[in-house]
Structures are given as structure tokens and as C-alpha cells.
Amino acid sequence: MIHPSGDPRPTSAEITEQSFTKSSFSGGQGSCVGIKRFGDWTVVGKHELAAASPTLIFPRADWDGFCALVARGERTGVGEVAAAFTSDGGFTLTETSNVGAPTIVYDRDEWEAFKLGVEAGELRSGDPRGTLVS
Which of 5, 31, 106, 112 has its CA at a distance of 20 to 30 angstroms from the CA of residue 118? Predict the structure, then answer.
């Protein structure tokens, strides 16, 4: 798939080579939402799983739109970002138009760290601040 800007989706090899950035609020807990930026694409996964993490690939504008909603306290997806919130306080992410995309499940602690990071301006595609995970 090509982004309307002409930017091709990153390949699996490219995704594996780059480190995730996670929320600085995740501390030493288990896995967290991690992102990788590739031009007009944002790759999302579970940072602790590194190369073994299932990944989702979103247009940068959709990911940033989702982060803006989270920062405002809203719990909904936007564009290609399909978010569902679970009764235990966690959430899931998947791609809306990619039927083969995995669904990544995050628990309550992962949601809280992600939400705090987004509220602090981290994990946006244009400026993926947070903690780089090697």
C-alpha cells in the first residue's frame, strides 16, 4: 500500500531494524504501547516483545488524530485506528481496513502509561518523544 503522499508502507525488515519509542510513564512495568515512525506511517506494537511484536501500520495523520482524542479524554478510534476499550480498563488496537491485521491487546497499566504519555505530548508521529527502547 502506498500513502497518498507516495510514501510506501515500511517493510517487515525496516520495522525490525528500528527501535520502539514508548511512554516515559511506563517505567519498569511489562510491555507498553510502542511506536516507530516511517515518513507518513506510524508503526505500533508492544515494545517489550521487540522484533516478535505484532505490529500495526497506520497513516501518521490517523495515529496523531487518535492521540489527540486520547489527550482530550475521548475513547474512540479515528480513520484506520480501531480502538476498543475493555471492561478491565485496557484496550485493543487494530487496523480498520486490513482484515489480516492483528489485534493487539493492552492491559490497564499499559493504557494508563500510554494515556499519560500522550497527554504529555509523547508518542505523536511528528515528534515521537518518550523513552527509546533498544
Answer: 5
Q: Would you say the C-alpha torsion 107, 111, 117, 123 has a positive or negative sign?
A: positive
Q: Contact 45/34 with Cβ under 8 angstroms? A: yes
Q: Which amino acid is at 40?
A: D
Q: How many helices (H) and strands (E) does the chain have?
A: 3, 8
- The full length of the chain comes to 134
Q: For residue 130, is it left (φ>0), alpha (ψ between -120 and 50) or beta?
A: left
Q: Which three cell numbers stand for residue 34?
A: 510502542
Tens digits of per-residue pLDDT, 37-79?
888 999 998 877 666 778 999 999 999 999 999 999 998 999 9
Rounded CA separation 41/114 (Å): 19
> What does the DSSP assignment read for 16-53?
HHSPEEE-GGGTTSS--EEEEEETTEEEEEEGGGGGGS
